[in-house]
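Q: My collaborator sent me two sequences in one message, no labels, and asked for predicted structures for both. Can we handle them in order? The first one she listed is below.
A: Yes, handling them in the order given. First sequence, followed by its structure tokens:
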Amino acid sequence: MSQNSTLQRGLNTRHIRFLALGSAIGTGLFYGSATAIKMAGPSVLLAYIVAGIAIYIVMRALGEMAVQNPVSGSFSHYASQYIGPLAGFTTGWTYVFEMIIVALADVTAFGIYMGFWYPDVPRWIWILSLIMFLGAINLIHVKVFGELEFWLSIVKVSAIVAMILGGIGLMFYGFHADHSSVVPGIQNLWIYDGFMPHGIAGLVACLSVVVFAFGGIEIIGITAGESQDPKTTLPKAINAVPVRILLFYVLTIFVLMSIFPWNQIGSQGSPFVQIFENLGIQSAATILNIVVITAAVSAINSDVFGAGRMLYGMANRGQAPRVFQKLSRNGVPWMTVVVMAGVLLIGVVLNYLIPENVFMIIASIATFATVWVWLMILLSQVAMRRQLSTAEIKALDFPVIGWPYAPAFAIGFMVFILVMMGYFPDSRPAIYVGITWLVLLMIAYRIWVKPQQNSGKQNNSIPQNIEIES
């Protein structure tokens, strides 16, 4: 192991695009979409469109900073540089915590999915095997990681495309199960209590679920330090991925609600299984299990990568333990991978000890963390613009769209989501946990980080009398 190595720029445009797809398309689409549909009915399509636009603005704001200054740690670094060290510290650690929580949930889900085929094998064996496998992949080389994530994402994307095409076939060519009395068609979007059956309140209530489904796309910024050509690959990935994710989500849910009455989706198992069964595919449950296993592995893989690179970047700035700075000869921050694997192992034990309802409340912090990170990205970009001269702004290679109105809209949207989460009882615990988390981070910053930074500044300001021998 070497501490003097640097991160290797082994990720190309293909890797980065599918890394973001793999991180953002997962459980939120395969299962979470049914919850959003129940809340808002067909009007959930509007929620996905509005949220998708806001998140695209977030990605453009991140892209403006990442192309200007591609570094490890990305948005935590930008928050530290343009807002202040405390902002960077809270943003970075909140993102790491989000990745850990999501990874814990996905690791648990993986064990359950494998039980579908091997019910007699203890769940911990599958979980341990997966953690060891992904740990090894993340330790080899970033290019190996990128290739694995590419192929895992291909499986998920192919399944979604197959479902969309199959659904369109059901809608327009009348292929449907004989026992089904529902006629597939666009009319199903409004004939069951209207397009907005629960009114504006239902539409607003589903926004937090919808926003969480897009969580993970910000990992594009994390790849900046290992991208082969950041000025080319990052703009291409940012411009392509948000639009594709928006199309995947909107098209998939549009097809779902056109085939089935919206109030029946998810009531008889997964919507994906329902569509495949209506196409006459008897092994629908097996196909879905392969897809969700792939989704879980892909998500855990990207979570380990994202959290590890964030910790590495923060360690370089003195905001995380210095041990996370250590790199292998291949340029991989190996200690962060080891720690993440250890945390996941502890999490497996906790899943058996903590009651399920309590664990779900804790997991809801991921929604708060996602919105908080996006908000800090937007505020960092605004702060950066204020520090640049007119000439420097004109020279930006990848400026944010619609300045200043688009970022203002996105900032207002994120604040609105946080307010709505506090308003609705189901999501209110996430706000309580999130605020507590931020307060603890502020205390930790005051106790451990700020004194070290102050002492470092004092040491740098002490004049050194050096005698030079002639």
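Q: And the one she listed second?
A: Here it is, processed independently of the first:
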Amino acid sequence: MTDIRQATAKADSTRISDTALIFEGGGMRASLTSGMVVTLLHAGLDFDWVAGISAGASNAVNYLSGDARRARRSFVDFAADEQFGGLRYFARGQGMFNAEYIYQQAGAPDMALPFDWETFQSSTGDMRIVAFDAESGDEVVWSRKDTPTIEDLMVRVRASSTMPGLMPSVHLDGHVYVDGAMGEDGGVPLSQAQQEGFEKFVIVLTQERSYRKVPQRFPAFFRSLFRRYPALGDALLTRWARYNETRDRIFALEEEGKAHVFAPERMPVDNGTRDLSRLAAAHRMGLSQSWRELPAIREFVGM
């Protein structure tokens, strides 16, 4: 516990320009990986390039806003909010997670989860948020230039986080967007970082090292469910292979000394967990593990 308490004293900032910081999605599993956001912020590790998909997009923008408290609250305390979601909201067509409220309302000043837009704007790091075009089957990547206002930012974080079938798709600029995990890498935006020239990576995963994704059961059901968007149906049914291949690439980079990989030692929650005690325990686990890994991260980035 002593080490964790020491993490509350923020260090002087150190800019890191040659290493990409990448956050995997995973719904409420980010209750654990948000502990890494808190640790990096308190350690003063200031990455110039940060990418995230789905819940990883929330981790990324919380990191860039410098708000350790919001990083935790987004995936722990906020789950107790009556408007967060549930079957009642799903039946109304608002989604199992009430995305419009979570992303486009709660982050406003004086709302339940205010976002520090001023600090986000003034931060030096660039970002990449990844979503999936349900009609074309193309991946879309947004950066700071696409988000001049907080509304522009939050609707894109929402789009990246929209679980197909569980949340209503996002209609933006004539396109229909869903979770970026349907895209090229299956949920971890490694390829985008490599395409932009990065050769070193700090990668924050939301599944244990031994995890392997398996094919979806009942493919005919999903093809029927997404018959208006066959490209989405195809992407959903083949995601398991892309995801496993990306993880293989990640661990190969780690073996080559080109990546520091944070993978939960144990993941005690799933993507839909709402129990606050379990979420809080997961966050403590993530905070403890990330703090223990901090010396290795510092060495990896050359501090």
